[in-house]
Write a structure and sequence with these properties.
Elements: H1 8-34, H2 36-55, E1 60-64, E2 67-70, E3 76-77, H3 85-97, H4 102-133, H5 138-165
Antiparallel strand pairs: 1-2, 2-3
Helix pairs in contact: 1-3, 2-4, 3-4, 4-5
Length: about 180
């Protein structure tokens, strides 16, 4: 059993699982009930989204601390599950649990969180525009299109981490050795 935890994949999964459970407990029992982190991320997303939409000539309104709209539309409600914090955590846990130099992790984690946040801003902007021109497509794109895009981007950042920064390389099939 001792040798089992020397296997890199088992060590990665065990460390990742423990960190994930710790994050979940911290978030559910302390961070989420305080609300200021979730609201802060949501307010920042809405603020940036409205500013960028304004640059493109859209008149926006912030109707509550969680809702924004392009004038003349019902608007978008951004709930806690859509603010990206769980994705920040998932991404960070993977990088922390996977082998690699600490200095690279210190740089790569905030950079990835920033990218995820910007993707979420782009998602809000695009959903607002979709809502303006074709309201019936809003829910489909929210549920499927952007979920796929954001998870694909996170996956690609993980692959980048594995191949460029972790010190490990994903094995590529060598077609010449068959």
């Amino acid at each position: 059993m001792k040798n089992l935890f020397k296997e890199p994949i088992v060590k990665f999964l065990a460390v990742g699982f423990v960190i994930y459970l710790s994050w979940l407990a911290l978030y559910e029992w302390w961070i989420h009930p305080m609300e200021w982190v979730d609201k802060g991320v949501i307010n920042n997303t809405i603020s940036i989204s409205c500013k960028i939409l304004g640059w493109f000539g859209y008149v926006t309104e912030i109707s509550s601390d969680r809702m924004m709209r392009i004038q003349g539309t019902p608007g978008l409600f951004i709930g806690d599950s859509c603010n990206g914090i769980s994705l920040f955590a998932l991404y960070s846990i993977f990088i922390i649990a996977f082998p690699g130099r600490t200095m690279y992790k210190i740089i790569f984690i905030p950079a990835g969180i920033l990218i995820i946040h910007l993707l979420n801003v782009i998602r809000v902007i695009t959903l607002s525009i979709i809502e303006t021109y074709s309201y019936s497509w809003t829910e489909f794109n929210h549920t499927y299109t952007f979920t796929l895009i954001i998870y694909a981007c996170i996956f690609l950042m993980w692959i980048l981490w594995i191949n460029k920064f972790s010190g490990l390389r994903m094995k590529k099939a060598d077609s010449n050795n068959q």
